[in-house]
Design goal:
This protein has 429 residues and is α+β, with helices and mostly antiparallel strands. 46% of the residues lie in helices and 8% in strands. Strands 2-3-1-6 form a four-stranded antiparallel sheet, covered by helices on one side. Strands 4-5 form a two-stranded antiparallel sheet.
Length: 429
């Protein structure tokens, strides 16, 4: 199929020319020996120049030294120019300096866009203006930023000198001074190494308020007003600080008082809770005492009730009722509510009267018991009361007085049970 391709494509498939044959090298280049070996410079020393005939070495000027040299040269040139201009400068013969020098005001740091009409409107408030001379550059014709204003009256110039300094015109605060070239002896302009004089040194705190035409330093009313205003601001700041301190102290006192009130309320709540707990504790103790008293009464009734309640029916005698109302007698208890109230009332009485009442009841029970024994009912009483009635308690042969003395001697710590004659401990109060 390649035979059908055009000649330009067939040329792409044509074989290259064969590589030409070159005879092999005997040695590589780095293996060959040089005819002249390396050597030092000793053979060439005689070709050098004699050091005695060579010129001395020159020292090159560094960059810092060159800049310092140019600066010194510039200062020297400027000093020469200033000296030359000082010899030629004569403000009294200057053709541009016209009018009365004592009525002329110097205005500097003026905005470059401020016009003469704008200056006239700003400075005419101090008095009528005779002439305004704005200074322009001779080469470019642009304003230099200062001007001379001549008033018709000298007092107007003094008023503008005192009050117009620092006035903002077109966004820039101007500097106002008197014309010193023709009024102050020995004064030089800034371009000749001078300055603005002794009245305008910078800010309001260092400016000297006198014209420089005399030696006396007089502070005008504006300075005194400024000082008074500064003192008033300082006093107001001090008063504000003191007021803030008082407010902070009052806030602290209120905060402390609120915290004390809160603490007092918390303590009162705790005291009320403690009182409630103590009241509940007392009520629980009173209920516990009532319960123990009730149990003690029940024990007393259960211990002697078997023989005592059966005895009146068989003996035929009415049992004595010497105890107070509400106490447990031989004929049975009263109602539960009245018994509880009577028990609480009797518990408040002295222990002495309680022991006496118990002794009286015991004596009555002993009498009833003996009367039942004489009637021949000993067996039934023993079977019903647990045999307590038949025991000899050692008081049978004693009379009533001896028995009372014995029970009084033993009644300090307990009472004598009528059933078995044992000494029983009194129930705790």
């Amino acid at each position: 199929m390649t035979q059908f391709l055009p000649p330009n494509l067939l040329a792409l498939f044509a074989p290259r020319d064969p590589i030409p044959y070159l005879p092999p090298l005997e040695k590589l280049p780095h293996e060959k020996h040089h005819n002249q070996p390396y050597c030092g410079i000793a053979p060439y020393i005689r070709e050098f120049e004699d050091p005695r005939d060579a010129p001395p070495p020159t020292r090159a000027e560094t960059r810092e030294e060159r800049m310092e040299r140019k600066r010194r040269e510039k200062i020297e040139r400027r000093q020469q120019e200033v000296e030359t201009e000082l010899k030629m400068w004569d403000p009294h013969n200057d053709p541009n300096a016209q009018g009365d020098a004592f009525k002329t005001l110097f205005v500097a740091r003026v905005n470059y866009d401020t016009t003469e009409s704008k200056l006239r409107r700003e400075f005419e408030v101090y008095g009528p203006i005779k002439r305004i001379h704005m200074v322009y550059s001779k080469r470019s014709g642009k304003p230099r930023g200062y001007a001379f204003i001549e008033y018709e009256h000298e007092r107007d110039m003094h008023s503008a000198y005192k009050h117009a300094d620092g006035k903002k015109i077109d966004g820039r605060r101007v500097l106002v001074d008197v014309e010193r070239g023709r009024t102050v002896k020995g004064w030089r302009p800034r371009r000749l190494g001078g300055g603005l004089g002794g009245t305008r040194r910078g800010g309001a705190d260092v400016n000297i308020r006198h014209s420089g035409r005399d030696d006396t330093s007089r502070y005008d009313e504006r300075d005194r007003d400024r000082d008074r205003e500064r003192e008033r601001r300082e006093r107001s700041r001090e008063r504000d600080k003191e007021r803030e301190r008082r407010r902070s102290r009052s806030r602290d006192r209120r905060r402390r008082s609120r915290s004390r009130d809160k603490e007092e309320r918390r303590r009162s709540r705790e005291r009320s809770k403690d009182k409630d707990r103590e009241r509940k504790r007392r009520s629980s103790r009173s209920r516990e005492r009532a319960r123990r008293e009730r149990e003690r009464k029940e024990e007393l009734r259960g211990g002697g009730g078997g023989g005592d309640m059966a005895e009146p029916s068989e003996a035929g005698d009415a049992p004595p009722d010497d105890g107070p109302p509400g106490e447990l007698g031989p004929d049975g208890p009263d109602g539960p509510e009245e018994k509880g109230r009577d028990r609480d009332r009797e518990r408040r009485r002295s222990h002495r009267s309680e022991r006496e009442r118990r002794r009286d009841r015991d004596r009555d029970r002993d009498r009833e018991h003996k009367r039942g024994e004489r009637g021949g009912e000993r067996g039934r009483d023993e079977s019903r009361g647990g045999g307590g009635g038949g025991q000899d308690n050692g008081l049978e042969g004693l009379g009533n007085e001896s028995r009372d003395m014995y029970m009084e001697s033993e009644g300090g710590d307990g009472y004598l049970a009528p059933e078995n004659g044992y000494l029983m401990e009194a129930a705790p109060e």
